[in-house]
Design the sequence.
């Protein structure tokens, strides 16, 4: 059984190699990193949800790049700028690419940005993967340089906040930034990232509440329910995510896949 | 807390100003399908040279190119003929074309609703407080319509509980409320399409992992082409705006 699996893997690797030879410059998807799972405290827990248990999963070691997303768009032209329905992607969708539908002056190795949640989810689905859930993403983001629980590592909060606030206006190539204890790169220093459960941000368990919770979350009062008010970088992430709608596409927002 | 850390955080918060600016300005942070947004989209059509014209039934505003198609769809719906497969408006939710399973185990895709206005609610079966009120809100909307139009509106009730709410369970739920009817569709889909629909409707929800879901309470009215006409958030809301939107859609 193991030998059969190994043979199949070798065959698959050979096929991938010969495929790459036949058509140059087709970027492979990002390598994935296995994460054993664990428990994560969401910054704004719903009542009775102090710790979310996360099952083992795999996550891309780096964010999805312009080149990788271009290969997806070429294979799925319904996701090209100009073809995608407005309801799935706003005006800024892939606005940094060339007029001809190619990358233009965009760095092929930089994380793709100006992608809506719908487009990001479709990319991952086409790869047989999915977007990471908010809890999965936060579990990985919480890792320090050497410990999977960064809170136990001196300087973690300051380092992450410096990475987030020190981002370049136009992100550089993936894979050259910080690497955490799981071996996952660029969780903080390049871009914000979509998660699967967009619109899961809720700071009240009272589903009978009237009104728009997103405003509560963003506007001061919401922070009183936060589980760790000293983690400003996490506060920024949650604040940013809570204001997003699925069709939003923006310059500082990319994604990676999980499975 | 170190001062420098706080200063950095404030600087970063300033970078989020466009989002934060929405505080106290209702709806601005949530470009979900609200009536305002729909109107804004139509306004943009006018601005780009498409003259508005009323459809055969009144208030549906669309560019001239789409108008004929809409009027034609209405005509076909009335006469029970096959609908034309014209291009959907960009803001139509019917672009979400993947198949769901309904309470009778049938496959159902949103584009099948083309030609008739619809009312969308997201709920789940084991929810005992908010959801019965959401279902009641949809019933109230139907009851407030003129009798000859009630069957013409599609009521689409979509569960958050993609595992627990099997078609059988949905059918029992619908039957218990006297709503196992032809124009009521109780749908269950994959986690992805459920999240996709929620994103389109501006519905927030979170799986609490114990069979319960935290969720916002939203009733959305779509026109014949799947474009949101009205969005009512909160329980016990006046059905008036939804009924008004439906009447305009006919």
Sequence:
């Amino acid at each position: 059984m193991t030998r059969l699996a190994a043979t199949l893997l070798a065959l698959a690797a050979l096929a991938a190699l010969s495929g790459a030879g036949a058509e140059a410059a087709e970027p492979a998807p990002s390598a994935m990193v296995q994460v054993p799972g664990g428990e994560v405290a969401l910054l704004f827990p719903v009542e009775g949800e102090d710790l979310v248990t996360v099952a083992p999963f795999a996550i891309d070691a780096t964010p999805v790049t312009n080149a990788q997303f271009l290969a997806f768009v070429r294979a799925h032209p319904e996701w090209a700028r100009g073809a995608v329905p407005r309801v799935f992607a706003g005006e800024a969708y892939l606005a940094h690419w060339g007029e001809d539908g190619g990358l233009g002056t965009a760095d092929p190795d930089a994380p793709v940005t100006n992608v809506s949640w719908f487009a990001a989810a479709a990319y991952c689905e086409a790869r047989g993967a999915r977007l990471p859930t908010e809890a999965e993403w936060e579990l990985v983001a919480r890792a320090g340089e050497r410990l999977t629980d960064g809170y136990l590592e001196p300087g973690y909060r300051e380092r992450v906040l410096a990475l987030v606030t020190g981002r370049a206006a136009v992100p550089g190539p993936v894979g050259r930034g910080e690497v955490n204890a799981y071996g996952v790169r660029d969780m903080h220093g390049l871009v914000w990232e979509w998660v699967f459960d967009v619109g899961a941000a809720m700071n009240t368990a009272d589903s009978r509440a009237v009104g728009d919770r997103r405003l509560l979350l963003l506007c001061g009062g919401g922070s009183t329910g936060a589980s760790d008010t000293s983690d400003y970088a996490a506060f920024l992430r949650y604040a940013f995510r809570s204001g997003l709608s699925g069709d939003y596409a923006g310059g500082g927002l990319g994604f990676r896949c999980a499975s | 807390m170190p001062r420098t850390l706080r200063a950095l955080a404030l600087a970063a918060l300033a970078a989020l100003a466009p989002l934060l600016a929405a505080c106290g300005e209702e709806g601005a942070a949530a470009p979900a399908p609200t009536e305002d947004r729909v109107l804004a989209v139509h306004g943009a059509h006018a601005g780009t040279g498409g003259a508005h014209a009323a459809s055969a039934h009144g208030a549906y505003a669309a560019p001239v190119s789409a108008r004929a198609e809409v009027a034609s769809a209405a005509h076909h719906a009335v006469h029970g003929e096959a609908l034309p497969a014209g291009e959907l408006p960009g803001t139509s939710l019917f672009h979400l074309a993947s198949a769901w399973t309904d309470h009778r185990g049938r496959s159902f895709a949103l584009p099948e609703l083309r030609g008739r206005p619809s009312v969308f609610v997201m709920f789940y079966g084991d929810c005992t407080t908010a959801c019965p009120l959401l279902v009641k809100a949809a019933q109230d909307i139907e009851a407030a319509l003129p009798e000859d139009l009630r069957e013409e509106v599609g009521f689409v009730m979509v569960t958050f509980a993609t595992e627990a709410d099997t078609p059988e369970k949905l059918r029992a739920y619908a039957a218990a409320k006297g709503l196992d009817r032809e124009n009521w569709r109780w749908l269950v889909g994959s986690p992805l399409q459920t999240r996709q629909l929620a994103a389109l409707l501006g519905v927030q929800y979170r799986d609490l992992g114990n069979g319960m879901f935290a969720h916002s309470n939203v009733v959305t009215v779509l026109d014949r082409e799947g474009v949101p006409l009205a969005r009512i958030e909160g329980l016990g809301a006046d059905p008036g705006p939804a009924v008004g939107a439906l009447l305009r859609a006919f």
About this structure: The domain at 27-254 of chain A is CATH 3.90.1580 (paralog of FGE (formylglycine-generating enzyme)). The first helix of chain A runs from residue 2 to 22. Residues 4-24, 203-224 of chain A have pLDDT under 50 and may be disordered. The radius of gyration of chain A is 19 Å.
